[in-house]
Amino acid sequence: MTYRIGVDAGGTKISAGLVAGNKLIRKIKIPTEQGKGRNQVIKNILKAISIVSRGIEKKEIGMIGIGLAGPVDSKNGILKVAPNIKGMQNLPVRKIVEKTSGIKTIVENDAKCVALAESRQFKCKNLIALTLGTGVGGGIIIDGKIYHGSNYAGELGHIVIDYRGYKCNCGNNGCLEEYCSGRGVERLAKKYFGKAIPPLEVQRMAEAGNKKAIQVYNEFGTYLGIGLADYVNIFNPEIIVIGGGIGRAWKLFLPNAIKEMKKRAFDVSSSTVKVVPSKLEVDEAGILGVASLD
After folding, report:
1. Which of 111, 116, 195, 229 could join 265 in a cystine, given CB atoms 3.0 to 4.6 angstroms apart?
2. Which CATH number goes with the domain that contains 217?
3. What percent of the chain has pLDDT over 70?
4. Paired residues of 14 in beta bridges
């Protein structure tokens, strides 16, 4: 049997899985430790690969796929920019991993990999996937394939929804990522509660009926809806899938997001698009997507 290894390396954690066919055989998760610098992040990626492949001979592994947050030069396996992982610019990830492992390695943007997995899950050839987590990632599937543009298309978290808005890690102001990521929830919590509260705690409060916490997610949904309207007008997708750790709270914000989207987007497109939560586990979507790359 030939296995594939999928690695989803985000700003907070690294998830890795051993895949046979379309089935995830085993899965592990370790901290990214991005605060310790790029060398530590690379060490942890290699550590995750080593752990998940224990007991498997090298000749049984067909490829390693690595999904990374930020613009990736997938042709050359280089992470160009990592807004949420410090010091990772222009990092030749493929070269480093292939030299260490001796196994063919493919490197791609993590959210593009999620989009590919979601496309197969929903059996949809024209789809957009958003991952709401530490940042906001995006992937575009057109005619069943990842859309790269000339190379780096799909940075959907960095559309501007308020040009006078909060400063983003990318250097711009008012990016969607600043409003619909974990720090976006914390910022809204500070607005309504007077202090920053971890997103999971805000979610639990909202689910328990706390009115201020519900307001947090209503406003969160409004911001997201502004972004969704842009995607609908530009790409006219059949489905938009919402995933990621923050996306788990979709019941709290998606109705308002869809309402705002329909208010702003052209009716000919917004009336047919389906905006839905991911059916895949947060960690599994990225792993399965990146492990299916060729």
Report:
1. 229
2. 3.30.420.40
3. 99
4. 9, 30
